[in-house]
Design brief:
With 522 residues, the chain is mostly helical. The chain contains 25 helices and no strands.
Length: 522
Amino acid sequence: MSSSSFVKSTLLLTTATLLSKILGSIFRIPLQNIAGDHVLGIFSLVYPVYMVALTLSVAGIPIAISKLIADARAQNQFSQIKEIYVTASILAFLFGLSSFLVIYGFSSTIAEILGGQSTRLALIIVAATLLIAPYMAVYRGYFQGFEDMKPTAISQVMEQFVRVGLILLIAYYLVQQKFSDEVVTGGVMIGSVVGAFISLVYLKAKYIRSSFKQTLSRKYTFHSFTSRSKHILKLSIPIAIGTITMALINFIDSITIPYGLRNIGTSETNINYLYGIYGRGLSVVQMATVFSTSVVLPLIPLITSKLSEGDTTQVRAITEKTYRVTHILSWPAAAGLLALTLPMNLALFTDLEGNWILAIIGCSSVFTSLTILSTGILQGLNLAKQAAMIVVIGVFIKAATNIYLIQLLGLAGAAVSTLVVYIILFIINTWYIYKHQPFRLMKKMIVKINLASLFMAVVIGAPTLFISVADWTRIQALVYLTIAIVVGVGIYIALLLLMKVINVFEILQYTPYRQQKGRANK
């Protein structure tokens, strides 16, 4: 594949990842509208358990396989590719089956930890996805090893469309049939299973018709399996832990928030409801962080390749550019979420429950984005183990602060804990990156961005302090929200231009990988 084709393929994958993450973020809003906060609460409690198991099982596999296959191709050792594929498939089977059996076998215990037995049915059903998803990771990594990102991109979007569509359809049907919240949540989890299965069928068919298939040149033995497994696991495990940040912290929330709420006398039903309120904030944060989570995937190999070439100037330039763009996008998003908490809560979730929760978690979105980005940069710098250790530190801090702050502040304590933890993780990550690859911290630019974001937030948020938003209809809130966003974006861009943080050329001409594409076309 030519450099130009590779850039186009990478852009396709980035776009597909962005689209699938947007779908995966926004569906919780209609789910809450259809089924209510209790169902959203059960869903939000259960899903992080599945995501942690899924990430540990498959997250590092595509990158590990793609790297090993790419290395084999570079050395003209095509006979090794089939061994890599077979070994990865066996590992996928073992990871998927063992993860499913652990969750199924301990489902009652896990459900009790999560808040009560009302979460058990949803937990068991969604765990069935673990029998399918690891195989998807193998095929995606295989195609990526041949620099073909298209199957991964299409399968991601296909899986998410099927999943989200079924979740909402099943939720609507079961609610109309007046099933219990427990059954409704269990039913919507079927969407994840079917979405993964459809995606796997597509990838399998694509593989069968592909010209990339290889054959074994020697007998595949147990020694072959153990030898290849070591290489795959050595690469994949640190990547999996490093990419698990958000899922692992949400998982800790699923365990420690119910525990903290029980300690202050909250019943199981109210725990599900309150976690649904907390889940509103998580939904909004996920929408605000789609850029950083999408840009990390191509960023890791890009930085790694420049580092292997000894081009530290480009490594620094890429780091500075991605930090700059993330700051420019994340600060106004967080400020806007804070300023528009009231109309946003009413417009998206139908009432004003949990405004403070939404506001605090909204503020954390900027540090969540920067943490995800900086973790990806650490992985690109071949510091995946260090990135994983930082995540583990964050998990312990999150668990401790959740339990302590919930005792003091109730559910709002968990939101404060989220904000504090992501600030700490961002600072540690940035310090570690700076220590190994010094780059400009752009302090003056960040101050200007903060001032522009603050001014914008005051302008669009001030009217809500003098008007009774509680008396608005949902349509009125939605209209105000839309107008405020348009006005806010205009004010923010104008201030950035005025303070020379950006220029008109950047707004009109900037596209991701523009420089790389230009070099590829030369």
